[in-house]
Each structure stands twice: as C-alpha cells, then as structure tokens.
C-alpha cells in the first residue's frame, strides 16, 4: 500500500486491504440476488402476479431465510472471478506489484477451466437459471454480460503482459460473440447484441454495449478492424435510444412484443453507470464528437442519482433501497470519466466516503449488499 497524505486515498487503500483479506478468508462462493428464483417452488409462485410480488419482496427482505427455506446452495459465479481479475489487474497497473498480477492470473485460470462446454468459442453464464415474462434461461447458459466482463479482463491481461495465451482467449471469446451469440435486428434496421445465447429476448443497453466495448478492445489490440465494424451498429443503437434528458431506459422494446415493459422502462443508477463506462471505453479507442456528447449528457443525468453527501439513489424515481452496485458504480464510473470530465472525481470521493461509513462491516470491511 502506498503512503499518501490524501485522506480519501488513504480511506480507499484501507478498505481495499480489508476487502482483500476478507476474500482471502471467505472465497467467492456465495449467494446472488436471483439464485432463489431458480428454486422449483419459487418459480411456480412467480407465475402468479400477486404471489410473485409477495415472494420477491420476502426474498429481498429476508434473503438468508428464503434461501434456507427453498434449499438454495451458494455457488461460485464466473462474473465474480472476472471482476476480481479486473480489480487485481488495475491494482497492478497502479502498484506494479507482481503479487497482484499473480492473483489476477489465478482468477483468469479459473475462468479458463470453468467456461461453458460444447459451445463454439469461449463463454460463461450464471450458475443458476433465471426467468420472467417471456424469459427462461437455464443455469450455465452463456450470458453476454458475464462473457464480456470476462473478456475485458482477458483483454487487460493481454495489454499488460502481451502473453499469447491471453490473445488466444480474446480470439475465442470474439468467436462466440461474432459467430454464436444472436443479434437482434429491429424493424428500423438497428441491431443489438442479445442478452443470452437463448431464452432471453430482451434488448438491454448495458449488455449490448459491454459486448461492443469488448469487440472494440479486440480490434484495437489485434489490428483486426472487422471486430469494430461488427460492433458499430450496436453502439449506434444505444446512442440512438438515449433519452432527451441524457438517461437510458434499462432496455428497449417494440410495441407488439411480449416483454416486461415496466422492468425495461426502469432508469436506474448502476446500469446507467455501466452504459457510461462502456461508451467511454469505446470513445478511448474511436473518439467521436457524437460519443463524447452522449457521455457528457449522460453524466449530467447520472449525477442526479446521488445526494449532496454521496448517498446513491436506486433509480430516477426511487431513493431506496441503497444497492452496493450503485455504490461501486458511484466510485468507479466518475473516477474513469474524470479523464474527460475533470470535476467528476469529486462525486467518486463523496460516494466512497458515504459507502465506507454505511455499507461495510466495520470490523471486517465486508460489503453490505443493501
């Protein structure tokens, strides 16, 4: 840990050390917000609107109890390993500590060994199924969000080490995205990457842009422009559907399709952050005025998701619950965007302070989910 006279940087280092120790002690096996919904009895309850709201609400208020009742076992999620790898690679870029690089490599090794089998190219999904109106995705179905986060971790590892094994991983993941994952073609000719290999027809902006950002990264690292050309229509799709106030709905829908429109119409904190970060990753590779203006407009809306002292709001019309995703995005997104928006880091500092005080176990540093 570096010495610093900046109290906010010291706070970040302190929490980081606590989190590293907590993960070392507890590992990455755990629960997910949606895993209980894969339990057979719970899935039946979800078929009835009133019972669905009631059961979902109870599972949110009593998360451990509902998992005990429905016998939901903790699982090891590929997305957790991808995010840990990314975190350690960022730490290596800051510190040049070989231990951080070794930790990142261990998570990437786990991903190699636990990708979805019998699929052309490399991909990952969730270790539990999820379902909803028109959605039914079994456990371990390739999911674009999980695969893209893993892919961007491999891209960062290749950028740092230039090892051929990481390049091979990038090409295998690219094969999945360009040859296997479905592409939605809309009535007006727009195109959007699918959320999952099968069973999920939703058109979701953060998932679409994560795939696009990964393909832009591969194009930049390999010099193969075909990957960027395949991703460009998906970027345009999300840019075209930014709202006038700078926000994005969680998803897009056409009038005659069967979809959970109230869910797709949500404008929430952390998915907005995801969208902005992906757009910025694309902008760094292919800067255009249109992209820059979209990011600036989006960030002007994004800051409205936070109180004056850094408390994240859940959505544009809903202050609670305070979700750890929003806390993390409130630190990460403004930190990255501060490269083009000089004052953005001020928001990151306020969210860091608030989250450190309210969203952690003060004895262990463990994160609180909500």
Q: Would you kindly provide a written description of the structure presented here, covering whatever features stand out?
A:
- This protein is mostly helical and 370 residues long.
- Helix content is 57%, strand content 5%.
- The chain contains 15 helices and eight strands.
- The strands form four sheets. It has a two-stranded antiparallel sheet with strand order 1-2.
- It is globular and about 55 Å long.
- The model has no long low-confidence stretch (mean pLDDT 92).
Helix-residue proportion: 55-70%
**For the terminal residues, how far apart are their CA atoms?**
29 Å
- Structural class, judged by helices and strands? mainly alpha
Q: Helix segment count?
A: 15
Question: Major β-sheet, in short?
Answer: 2 strands, antiparallel
Enumerate the spans where pLDDT stays under 50 for 5 or more consecutive residues.
none
Please give the structural blueprint.
Elements: H1 7-26, E1 29-30, H2 40-45, H3 49-61, H4 63-69, E2 75-76, H5 78-95, H6 98-113, E3 130-132, E4 135-137, H7 144-161, H8 164-179, E5 183-185, E6 191-193, E7 203-204, H9 205-222, H10 225-240, E8 251-252, H11 261-264, H12 269-285, H13 289-302, H14 324-337, H15 344-358
Antiparallel strand pairs: 1-2, 3-4, 5-6, 7-8
């Amino acid at each position: 840990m570096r010495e610093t006279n900046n109290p906010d940087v010291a706070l970040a280092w302190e929490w980081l050390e606590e989190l590293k120790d907590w993960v070392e002690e507890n590992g990455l096996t755990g629960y997910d917000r949606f895993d209980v919904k894969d339990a057979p009895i719970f899935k039946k309850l979800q078929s009835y609107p009133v019972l669905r709201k009631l059961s979902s609400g109870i599972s949110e208020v009593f998360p451990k109890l509902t998992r005990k009742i429905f016998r939901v076992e903790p699982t090891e999620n590929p997305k957790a390993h991808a995010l840990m790898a990314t975190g350690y690679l960022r730490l290596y870029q800051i510190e040049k500590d070989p231990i951080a690089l070794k930790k990142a490599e261990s998570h990437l090794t786990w991903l190699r060994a636990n990708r979805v089998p019998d699929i052309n190219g490399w991909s990952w999904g969730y270790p539990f199924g999820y379902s909803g109106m028109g959605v039914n995705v079994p456990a371990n179905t390739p999911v674009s969000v999980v695969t893209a986060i893993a892919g961007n971790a491999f891209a960062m590892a290749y950028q740092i080490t230039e090892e051929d094994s990481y390049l091979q991983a990038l090409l295998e993941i690219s094969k999945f995205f360009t040859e296997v994952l479905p592409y939605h073609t809309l009535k007006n000719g727009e195109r959007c990457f699918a959320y999952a290999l099968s069973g999920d027809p939703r058109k979701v902006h953060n998932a679409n842009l994560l795939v696009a950002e990964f393909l832009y990264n591969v194009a930049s690292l390999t010099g193969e422009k075909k990957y960027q050309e395949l991703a460009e229509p998906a970027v345009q799709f999300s840019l075209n559907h930014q709202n006038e106030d700078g926000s994005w709905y969680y998803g897009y829908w056409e009038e005659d399709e069967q979809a959970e429109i109230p869910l797709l119409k949500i404008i929430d904190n952390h998915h907005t952050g995801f969208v902005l970060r992906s757009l910025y990753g694309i902008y760094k590779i292919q800067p255009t005025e249109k992209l820059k203006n979209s990011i600036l407009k989006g960030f002007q809306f994004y800051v409205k998701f936070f109180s004056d002292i850094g408390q994240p709001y859940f959505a544009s019309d809903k202050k609670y619950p305070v979700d750890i995703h929003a806390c993390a995005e409130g630190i990460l997104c403004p930190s990255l965007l501060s490269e083009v928006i000089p004052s953005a880091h001020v928001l990151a500092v306020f969210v860091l302070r608030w989250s450190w005080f309210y969203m952690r176990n003060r004895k262990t540093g463990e994160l609180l989910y909500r």
